[in-house]
Design goal:
Helix 7 (about 195-205) runs parallel beside helix 9 (about 240-255). This protein is of the alpha/beta class. Helix content is about 35%, strand content about 15%. The relative contact order is 0.13. The mean pLDDT is about 95. It folds into two domains: about 1-260, no CATH class; about 270-325, no CATH class. The chain contains ten helices and nine strands. The longest helix has 23 residues, at about 215-235. The structure holds S-adenosylmethionine (SAM). The site of S-adenosylmethionine (SAM) has 19 residues, from loops.
């Protein structure tokens, strides 16, 4: 298991060639994800708000450019809270909320853990026994149940490799994220490697998240990839074959995407349209018409780039906006 809170892009590039490129991929635009923040501007012209995040900008001597919020300077943390309402949720709160969803799914409490408070500190104790499933539902149904973390930041509701507010590493057996819970169920029900890998693939395909800021998005994708490595090592020891790591990176690059959640489009992709009208006496007049979706706050009428995601069960690409009623 990697004990690092800050997954290093150099580590990914050296150990798994190609995988970092996949994690930087935007499946909607078929280009790279972009910074979508001004926090890195001081580093040069390739770090501007609209510039793509390419591997050369975050590896080599620049390998520590992207760090989790908990390791960012206080000034940067403050600026990000002000600009993007970035405040990360403590692991115990993520756990309590994920428990509410599972309480409803299982029809009982404490399927995965029991919330506790010791010496004024909130936490949880993972249940020790194998999880049982309610009548009419199987462990496979749980793994396939589709879940989404909106505005995910570094995705603490998806995987709790570390507590996003303290930076403390959380061992595999005690993790509480949406994906962590699916992986626990797979670990408990699949011992043969092929069956395990197939079920883990399903767990990833049914876990979605989106985020505006490119650096947080990359951190979320990295955390999910390392959760795969951690769980493989926990179950079998060692490291999975590169082809499986690449497969998981592919799924993650589809399922965790860059989007303005208020508009369902790539951030800042809506634009004014210029309309030219001719006047016999005054000549051509150019009027700027704003995006109708932005002007009327109508999610169906934006002229920006609507984000695409993959419906793995139907094996088709769909616009996320089509799911919004
Ligand atoms: C309060 S943080 C929550 C992050 C994470 N879900 C958590 O609970 O720790 C809000 C996140 O929403 C993102 N965000 C803000 N406005 C957004 C928008 N319109 N679309 C998508 N993400 C947005 C920010 O970049 C930030 O990462």
């Amino acid at each position: 298991m990697s004990n690092e809170v800050d997954i290093l892009e150099n580590d990914i590039r050296e150990r798994f060639p190609e995988v970092l490129e996949t994690l930087l991929c935007d499946r909607t635009t078929k280009k790279n994800i972009f910074w979508a923040t001004d926090n890195y501007r001081r580093l040069g012209r390739d770090y501007k708000f609209m510039s793509p995040i390419t591997s050369n900008l975050i590896t080599g001597k620049k390998g520590d450019v992207i760090t989790p919020r908990v390791k960012k300077s206080l000034a940067v943390q403050k600026a990000r809270s002000k600009d993007m309402a970035e405040v990360f949720t403590p692991a115990w709160v993520c756990n309590a909320q994920n428990n509410l969803i599972d309480d409803a799914w299982f029809g009982r409490e404490n399927a995965f853990n029991k919330e506790v408070r010791n010496d004024g500190v909130n936490g949880w104790e993972a249940t020790k026994e194998k999880i049982t499933f309610p009548e009419g539902k199987s462990w496979k149904d749980y793994v396939l149940d589709i879940r989404l973390e909106i505005t995910c930041g570094e995705a603490p509701y998806v995987t709790s490799r570390y507590d996003a507010t303290t930076g403390n590493i959380i061992p595999v057996g005690e993790r509480i994220g949406i994906l962590d819970r699916k992986l626990r169920v797979v670990n408990e029900n699949c011992d043969a490697k092929d069956a395990w890998l197939a079920a883990v693939e399903d767990a990833y395909k049914s876990t979605y998240a989106y985020e505006w800021q490119g650096d947080s998005l990359l951190l979320a994708r990295e955390a999910m990839l390392y959760a795969f490595l951690d769980n493989y090592a926990y179950k079998f020891g060692g490291e999975p074959e590169l082809a499986y790591i690449q497969k998981i990176a592919d799924i993650v690059s589809w399922n965790v995407w860059q989007m303005d959640g208020l508009k369902c489009v790539v951030p800042c992709s809506c634009k004014d349209v210029e309309e030219v009208s001719s006047d016999l006496f005054a000549g051509d007049k150019v009027t700027k018409i704003p995006c109708e979706g932005c002007a009327k706050e109508n999610i169906k009428k934006h002229n920006g780039i609507y984000c695409k995601i993959k419906d793995w069960q139907e094996n088709k690409v769909i616009q996320f906006e089509s799911l919004v009623k």
